[in-house]
Design a protein that fits this description.
With 183 residues, the chain is mainly β. The protein folds into two domains: 83 residues, Sandwich (Immunoglobulin-like); 91 residues, Sandwich (Immunoglobulin-like). It is flat, with a radius of gyration of 18 Å. InterPro entries: Ig-like_dom_sf (IPR036179), Ig-like_fold (IPR013783), Ig-like_Receptors_ImmuneReg (IPR050412), Ig_sub (IPR003599).
Length: 183
């Protein structure tokens, strides 16, 4: 099968100026290198540790904002490319949201789960993050995200982050994380 490279932020979400995050690149590969691109230009070559490589951003500034992607290479040959990951550095002006999971953090396969992200702001929208995923889910009805018939693949470390949709885009910090375990 074709190699697939995944790219994600750990922890996920918008980063505050001065904050930190790690760009993770992973694939089921043996040896070789990951080359990290920023805005389409070669940014850094990363050594493989097992099946992944990590690049840390600390003391983040607006300069760290932009699209990143990973290429898995063997010599000068690109064997696989990741999706594009948008990294955003923005001040947090909204309160940190409260985050919960109902009925609780441990559920049986097939159960119905609701993630609830609440914030004291009238026109906020919120994103649900699952660590290891490049894409976030926009919470459709303001604060709830429902998964009916959960399976083991839905398990993992979740968090949420909110933004205001008024005059200029303002962000909250990322909520505490919750681990969902599906038995």
């Amino acid at each position: 099968g074709a190699l697939t490279v995944s790219i994600f932020l750990k922890p996920p979400g918008v980063i505050a100026p001065g904050g930190s995050t790690t760009i993770c690149c992973s694939c089921q590969c043996d040896n070789g290198n990951f080359v990290l691109y920023k805005k389409g230009h070669l940014f850094r070559t990363l050594k493989l540790r097992g099946s992944r490589a990590e690049f840390s951003i600390s003391n983040a500034t607006k300069e760290d904002t932009g699209p990143y992607s990973c290429h898995y290479t063997d010599g000068d040959t690109v064997l696989a490319r990741s999706e594009t990951l948008e990294v955003t550095v923005h001040e947090f002006r909204l309160p940190t949201p409260e985050f919960s999971v109902l009925p609780g953090p441990e559920v049986a396969a097939g159960a119905h789960v609701t993630f609830r992200c609440t914030i004291e702001h009238s026109s906020a929208g919120c994103f649900l993050y699952l660590e290891g995923q490049v894409k976030a889910n926009l919470l459709s009805n303001k604060e709830d995200f429902n998964i009916s018939h959960v399976h083991k693949g839905n398990g993992g470390r979740y968090s949420c982050q909110c933004f205001s949709k008024v005059v200029s885009l303002e962000w909250s910090a990322v909520s505490k994380t919750l681990d969902l375990v599906v038995r």
